[in-house]
């Protein structure tokens, strides 16, 4: 059928690997990097990351990269460079938005491949700007990092890039069909393969559980693998992210060998991974932690209204700690339909006079439970 | 955009043929009808049949426009129209309602001879079978801890296609089995005879009888016929359904029927928007998929319902851990030999997939990720508002926060605005803020339109986004990249409610 109507003639298939977009989320949590500074200082991590990015760019002509810093108080673009959007900017420049103050001067160096220089320059400049804008108050405010925001930025950037690469999709694709069959029909048309690499050092990310989970499901739906390189700390959330999206999870024993891990473990793109055996996390702990004591539970009690998990059924005043609705435990037990037990008497009689009157033993069938 | 084809269609689907009393419905019912209308309006192009298209919309408007205005403006208005169309798909109402996350749904398929009609290709029956399989998959994607059962109205009887269970594969296999039976003895169930709504409702009521009270009880009927051949008084059945808190939604295929309207309005507290008609197959699919969103819980149930029955409950659930085995062992759910699986946390029976009810001890087993899948229904991302040029100038935004694509440039300010005194400007800014606040409150319930500056603003973090990110964030991601990129607890609470929901 499909062959006849001639639609396949419009599809132009490129030879060679499809372009690949790599979105790197670099966790720049100052607290965690301070712990790591003896083994792997942040500067050498960035140096290794730049080499890795160059390797990615070099491995395909159409390859692209995006780098996002997940800092303690904000998630910030490192590459590409965003233009600053400030209300005060308007009064100075009188609304004329023609002079982009975000452009970065690239020193001319004939010995450097230009795309490498562009990425390196803007990444370093944006990063130093981010560090210099970090105040002590920001550090004191939180010990963790905004991984949820960085993931959301990466995902929407990837979504937009995919649209740009296949502009045909924008008109035809309707959201509900995208929800329903994101697997089958869309991957065939979209030439851009993308993936996310999270270089994570922070431990506890539980405060962003919902945003990160939403991001994971979005990545799952869009078939974007999330790779995790965990240099320090430990969090189940990111393990689940890589497990659910089919990414690589690595927790190296020696963070000093960062470049080696990056190059060997994370450089292959989706096309190459099909013919490789990729390292995986092994068993992922999917058990839930209760909301009241943060204990990992095997059997939990779940509020039917807001789906909060509690470790014990005795809540104060039987009110849900999260949404405050009154919860009854009585209704929790599913009322399975009880069968009416067969009458014993009949059995006895059947045993006694079975052979005598065959007609008498015919079951009357009255004990079948009826609902209607 | 009153003249857009979608709003016309939307009214077609829900408002035009309103018969029942609407004024008496509570605010919640109204709000949910608003939601439903939104879903009815999120209809893509194909719904419009060729003869229904008014030439004025499709052709004449741009031509007229071209006469009046120059090329550049025309191009922009076309783009705006496009964005308008995209925005229509967004849900209008994103207020966090309490929704019935744990659903018990009986899907009733019409297997009567009317389904052999060929107005859908190749015929209604095959179209329905195809879409319902997709529907089941999407339903369990959206509602992982819900239960479903499939019935069929065949030759006056209501037959049971699949039992109430939470396993999508079983239902899909059973629906496929209608056309291609797995065993050679069974004949394929070809559409035959007349349907009986009463029989279907009675059987559905019986199936939902023992479901726990904290879950919803829903019947979704795909109905192609224009008659219902009932053995008794269907009004008694409707009464019984109301008493049992069963909510019926009907997706019709031919014309609107009075009895369907009555069933739906009686079981949905006077709200008739659950009765929709699919005029072609694209719309059928859309309308089916629209029911995958969990229904809102109405605060005031009918007087027939005792309050204790609809009470929320604490559900005992098991969160099993995965086991890896070298030697295959028998699973408790199917009796197949499998390596690996999950062991029930209470009785240690091995099941092969989750979520499932433990076959030996009846404990609900699931993963914490299944619960997390439902969170975006509970904490929806609020709609973003259109940005006027004035506002865009004020914010000085030049590119989308999340994808860094550049916005069209802000046109130069008016001269009189330029000459304003500083104090005046401040005053006008404050007025503007107040007006904006008012407008935002108002727009919360209004329909989504395209923005003149191609920017869309999140109310909480005041970041500006492009239309594609707007769509992506609201339909797929359910996060606001702007709010989450800033450490501002106030905005986070407003946005996703994640402060309370940690785990």
Automatic annotation (TrEMBL), chain A:
Localization per Swiss-Prot or TrEMBL: Nucleus
GO cellular component: transcription factor TFIIH core complex; transcription factor TFIIH holo complex
InterPro entries, alphabetized: TFIIH_Tfb4/GTF2H3 (IPR004600), vWFA_dom_sf (IPR036465)
Domain of life: Eukaryota
Region entry Disordered, spans: 79-110, 338-372
GO molecular function: zinc ion binding
Gene3D superfamilies: von Willebrand factor, type A domain
Protein's UniProt keywords contain Cytoplasm: no
Polar residues bias spans: 82-102, 358-372
Pfam families: Tfb4
Biased composition (Basic residues): 341-350
Keywords for this protein: DNA damage, DNA repair, Metal-binding, Nucleus, Transcription, Transcription regulation, Zinc, Zinc-finger
One BP term from GO: nucleotide-excision repair
Function, in words: Component of the general transcription and DNA repair factor IIH (TFIIH) core complex, which is involved in general and transcription-coupled nucleotide excision repair (NER) of damaged DNA and, when complexed to TFIIK, in RNA transcription by RNA polymerase II. In NER, TFIIH acts by opening DNA around the lesion to allow the excision of the damaged oligonucleotide and its replacement by a new DNA fragment. In transcription, TFIIH has an essential role in transcription initiation.
Subunit structure: Component of the 7-subunit TFIIH core complex composed of XPB/SSL2, XPD/RAD3, SSL1, TFB1, TFB2, TFB4 and TFB5, which is active in NER. The core complex associates with the 3-subunit CTD-kinase module TFIIK composed of CCL1, KIN28 and TFB3 to form the 10-subunit holoenzyme (holo-TFIIH) active in transcription.
Family: Belongs to the TFB4 family.
Name of the molecule in the record: General transcription and DNA repair factor IIH subunit TFB4
Origin species: Melanomma pulvis-pyrius CBS 109.77
From TrEMBL, chain B:
Gene Ontology molecular-function annotations: zinc ion binding
Transcription as UniProt keyword: yes
Chain segments annotated as coiled-coil in the UniProt record: none
Subcellular location: Nucleus
Role: Component of the general transcription and DNA repair factor IIH (TFIIH) core complex, which is involved in general and transcription-coupled nucleotide excision repair (NER) of damaged DNA and, when complexed to TFIIK, in RNA transcription by RNA polymerase II.
Source organism of the structure: Melanomma pulvis-pyrius CBS 109.77
Signal peptide residues on this chain, from the entry's feature table: none
ZnF region ranges: C4-type: 344-361
Chain intervals with Basic and acidic residues compositional bias: 74-85, 422-449
Region (Disordered): 1-89, 410-449
InterPro entries attached to this UniProt entry: C1-like_sf (IPR046349), Ssl1-like (IPR007198), TFIIH_C1-like_dom (IPR004595), TFIIH_SSL1/p44 (IPR012170), VWF_A (IPR002035), vWFA_dom_sf (IPR036465), Znf_C2H2_type (IPR013087), Znf_RING/FYVE/PHD (IPR013083)
Domain of life of the source: Eukaryota
Name this protein carries in UniProt: General transcription and DNA repair factor IIH
GO cellular component, one term: transcription factor TFIIH holo complex
